[in-house]
From TrEMBL:
SUPFAM superfamilies in the record: GroES-like, NAD(P)-binding Rossmann-fold domains
Protein name: Putative oxidoreductase
UniProt EC number: 1.-.-.-
Ribonucleoprotein listed as a keyword: no
Length: 337
C-alpha cells in the first residue's frame, strides 16, 4: 500500500525576508511497507510548529547552522523538519505501534518518513502538548527572578513572550510587554494579566518609552527582538540586571541590523546578557510540565494559539511570523487524525 505525500520545500536558499516564491509544494508516492527490522517509522502529521529560527536554517550561511544539530542548514528540495504531533501509520520500531500519537521532529508535509531510529520522537502525553519549555527555562533558569522584580518582555504576544509574561506574573513579578498592534496590547493587559503593555510602533523613542513604563528601572529583560529594543532595555536596566536572549527576530531578515548596547552600562551596572536554547533546559522539563499543566488546568495560564489549516498554508504561516501576523503559538494543522 502507498499514499501520496504532499510536502513543502525551499526552492533556493532564503537570505532576506521570506516570500511565497521561495517555497514549493511537492508530491511523491510513499510506500507504507516497512522492513520490520529497519527501525523506520512513517507518521501522518497532525500539527506542526512554525518557528522563526527556521529562517536561519534556510540561509546560504548563518553561524547558527554549526552551533547545534537541530539548527543545521536546510537543503533546497529536501524535507523541512520541525517539531510537531503526528500519528504512526507504519512502524519498523517495536517501541511504536500503528495509531500511536507521537511528538517530536516531523516535517512540513502530510506524512513523514523517519529513518533508522535516529529520530527525535516520543509518545504523546495525554496531559496535552504545552509548547513552552523555552519560556519556562529561559525565565526561571537564565533570568533567576525574585518576587517583586520588574520584568520587560519584547514580542510579548508571540509564542514565547506571552508565556514568559504569564509565568512572571504568576511568580509575583511586575510585568510590562510590548507588541505591534493595539489588539495585541489589549490581549496582554486584559486576558494575559500583564501589568502594562505598549505598541512599540507608536513609540518613536524606545529608550524614553521604557523609562516611562519602568520609572524604577528594569531588573529582567526577556529579549525576542534584538537591535534597538535591546539597546533601549540596557539603558534602563538596574544594577545586576539580567537579559535572557531568546531570539533576535529583527536581525533575522536584515543583516544590517545589529544590536549595539552601551557596554559601559553593561560593565558598571554588572548586567548579565545570556543567550540560550530550549535544548539547554531539558533538566527542568519535569518541573515545566507539571507546573504548566497545573496552571492550564486551573485556568491561571492561557494557551494562546494561532492555527493555519492544510499543507498549502506552511509558507504563508511562516512568512507571517516576520510580518507580525501571528498572535501566540503559530502552528499548521495538517490533518485531524
Amino acid at each position: 500500500m502507498e499514499v501520496t505525500n504532499r510536502y513543502i520545500t525551499i526552492k533556493t536558499q532564503v537570505d532576506g525576508e521570506p516570500k511565497e516564491s521561495d517555497f514549493e509544494l511537492k508530491t511523491s508516492a510513499l510506500s507504507l511497507s516497512l522492513d520490520p527490522s529497519s527501525n523506520d517509522i512513517i507518521v501522518k502529521n497532525l500539527y506542526v510548529s512554525i518557528d522563526p529560527y527556521q529562517l536561519n536554517r534556510m540561509k546560504s550561511q548563518s553561524s547558527s547552522q554549526k552551533a547545534i544539530g537541530f539548527a543545521a542548514a536546510i537543503t533546497p528540495g529536501e524535507d523541512i523538519d520541525a517539531y510537531g504531533v503526528a500519528k504512526v501509520v507504519a512502524s519498523g520500531n517495536p517501541e511504536f505501534e500503528k495509531d500511536d500519537l507521537v511528538v517530536g521532529l516531523i516535517t512540513w508535509g502530510e506524512y513523514s518518513l523517519l529513518k533508522g531510529g535516529k529520530y527525535m520522537l516520543r509518545k504523546f502525553d495525554p496531559m496535552g502538548f504545552p509548547l513552552g519549555l523555552t519560556a519556562y527555562g529561559g525565565f526561571f533558569e537564565v533570568c533567576k527572578p525574585k518576587k517583586g522584580e520588574k520584568v520587560f518582555v519584547s514580542a510579548a504576544s508571540g509564542s514565547v513572550g506571552n508565556l514568559v509574561g504569564q509565568y512572571a506574573k504568576l511568580f509575583g513579578c511586575y510585568v510590562v510587554g510590548c507588541a505591534g498592534s493595539k489588539e495585541k496590547v489589549a490581549l496582554l493587559k486584559e486576558k494575559l494579566g500583564f501589568d502594562d503593555a505598549f505598541n512599540y510602533k507608536e513609540e518613536p523613542d524606545l529608550k524614553a518609552a521604557l523609562q516611562r513604563y519602568f520609572p524604577d528601572g528594569i531588573d529582567i529583560y526577556f529579549d525576542n527582538v534584538g537591535f534597538e529594543m535591546l539597546e533601549a532595555a540596557v539603558v534602563n536596566m538596574n544594577t545586576f540586571g539580567r537579559v535572557a536572549v531568546c531570539g533576535v527576530i529583527s536581525e533575522y531578515i536584515d543583516a544590517t541590523k545589529r544590536a549595539a548596547p552601551n557596554m559601559l552600562d553593561v560593565v558598571y551596572k554588572r548586567i548579565k546578557i545570556q543567550g540560550f536554547l530550549a535544548a539547554d533546559q531539558m533538566n527542568v522539563f519535569p518541573d515545566f510540565l507539571s507546573t504548566t499543566t497545573d496552571h492550564l488546568r486551573t485556568g491561571k495560564l492561557h494557551a494562546v494559539e494561532d492555527i493555519s489549516d492544510g499543507v498549502e498554508s506552511f509558507p504563508s504561516a511562516f512568512i507571517g511570523l516576520f510580518r507580525g501576523h501571528n498572535t501566540g503559538k503559530k502552528m499548521v494543522k495538517v490533518a485531524d487524525e
